[in-house]
Write a structure and sequence with these properties.
With about 350 residues, the chain is an all-beta fold. Helices cover about 0% and strands about 45% of the residues. This is U5 small nuclear ribonucleoprotein 40 kDa protein.
Length: about 350
């Protein structure tokens, strides 16, 4: 006989079972199916799950150095990680999250990576002064963009514009625009200071940059000139991220705060563009370019933090919703899954955690 469990049994549903929600009118009952992945060998097979991951929390290992950047493809099928070891690893975003490809060719650390908006290519920014364009399916490097005269800190792509367009930020005090159909740059925006963060507007007509001058600048791509400067941070800006609607931009800074800014064309003259401030994350003496990102519905924000904790805030109230431990080093990158209630984090401890948010 088996010993009785000390734990209270949990009432669980089989795959075929559904919940019926009554709204008071018996003719308008809603049938809600709960996702429950099949698993014959799993003793907890009847536990209700909220994602397609094999386990609620998973640790991915494979990089030989600190991991600086993470990116999901737009369809939530692939996760890309870039590291100090000069490679990017491609992982399945569901199931057991197997590593299925290695993107190599850079000669120094990879500091940022982005999927094109059709999910077919990965664009990488590296400390070897170059950018790489890789085919996701084959892992082959299709192009190498050369032109920067300093470390390339960040790369950005436009959500709704051509998948061929990208913009990069560098220590050579420029943002350069690229087209994967062309070999050389198609535009150059010159700043007075090193540029450490960059983002495209959704329509690809505006570039946002941030750097060691603690300011966020907006540039008109058609006129190739600066149109707006937003001040509020007191230290270097390490990352910029546009919200899904394209109305606000999120910034992470070495002053220990994340801030959101209203970037719509017309804002009341009496209202400042700075919107909210999120506190709780930290930066340390490493002065790493810690990232920041939005959830797919724009209701939550997160960012890297040197205290080894993944912090997630509610965008509306600016209150911290989650404080997730587990990493043994500085958390450099945190990204939300575009389709599921899943978050991925990368750290200087050479590991990636992927887990469900309850």
């Amino acid at each position: 006989m088996e010993e009785p469990s000390s734990k209270r049994p949990r009432n669980s549903l089989n795959r075929e079972e559904v919940s019926i929600i009554h709204d008071g009118n018996h003719n308008n009952n809603q049938i809600v199916t709960l996702y429950n992945p099949p698993s014959s060998n799993n003793p907890n097979a009847n536990t209700i799950r909220t994602s397609s991951l094999a386990s609620p929390t998973m640790k991915l290992s494979g990089h030989k150095g600190s991991i600086y950047t993470l990116a999901y493809d737009p369809f939530g099928e692939t996760l890309c990680s870039g590291s100090f070891d000069s490679t990017c690893l491609l992982w399945n975003a569901s199931g057991n999250c197997e590593n299925f490809n290695v993107l190599s060719g850079h000669k120094n650390a990879i500091l940022d990576c982005k999927f094109t908006n059709n999910g077919e290519k990965v664009i990488t920014a590296s400390a070897d002064y170059n950018l790489g364009v890789y085919d996701v399916r084959t892992g082959e490097r299709l192009k190498r963009f050369m032109g920067h005269e300093g470390i390339v800190n960040a790369v950005g792509v436009a959500k709704d514009a051509s998948p061929c367009l990208a913009v990069s930020a560098s220590d050579d005090r420029t943002c350069r625009m690229w087209d994967t159909r062309v070999r050389s740059e198609v535009g150059c925006l010159e700043d007075q200071f090193q540029v450490t963060a960059v983002a495209y507007s959704n329509d690809g007509l505006t570039v946002f940059s941030g750097g060691i001058d603690n300011c966020i600048h907006a540039w008109d791509v058609r006129q190739m000139k600066r149109t707006m400067t937003m001040k509020g941070h007191t230290d270097t800006i390490t990352c910029l991220s546009l919200n899904p609607k394209g109305t606000h931009i999120l910034s992470n800074s070495m002053d220990g705060t994340l801030k959101t800014w209203d970037i719509r064309p017309f804002v009341d003259s009496g209202k400042k563009r700075h919107d909210k401030t999120f506190v709780g994350g930290t930066h340390n003496a490493e002065k790493g370019l810690l990232n920041c990102s939005w959830s797919a519905d724009g209701t939550m924000v997160t960012g890297g933090s040197a205290d080894r904790i993944v912090h997630i805030w509610d965008e509306l109230s600016a209150e911290e919703l989650y404080s997730l431990p587990g990493h043994a080093g500085c958390v450099n990158a945190v990204v939300f899954h575009p389709k599921e209630n899943v978050i991925a984090s990368a750290s200087s401890d050479k590991s990636i955690f992927v887990g469900e948010l309850s």
